[in-house]
Structures are given as structure tokens and as C-alpha cells.
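User:
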Amino acid sequence: MNKAGKDILGVQLYNTTEAAALLGISRITVHKYIKAGRLRARRIGRPLMITDEDLRAFLSGVIDQAKNRSWHEGTTPKT
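Assistant: Predicted structure:
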């Protein structure tokens, strides 16, 4: 992942604006995903922070959903 966030004790953290930029979605969508439980975030002080690991888990889940969706629609999943 991009190193735009903050590294605290070896953990890369991104605020919602940075995470949105990395994911190519709006900050509001990031907040919706957090609220829905699709993306994990922690409040550190006032801002919500997302770890590099949680971004990777989110992306992995999105990729898996896309593979399953194409499979259920009658097409062969792309590998």
C-alpha cells in the first residue's frame, strides 16, 4: 500500500480521506463501509484510522465477491 498514512510502532494507519484515495472511492463511501462493518476502523483520538492490514482484508473480500458474483452469473471466474 501507499505510505501516505502514518506509521505508528510499525503499524501503517490511514485516515478515511487517505483510505478513500487509496481505494478510489469517496470518503463518504468509506464511512458507509465502516458503519456497515465491511471495513474495519479504529478511533484514535477523534479521527477514524484504518490499518494497512484492514485495507488489504477489505480488498481481498471485494475481489472474492467479484469472483463469486461472476461465477453465480454463469461465467467462469477469472483467476
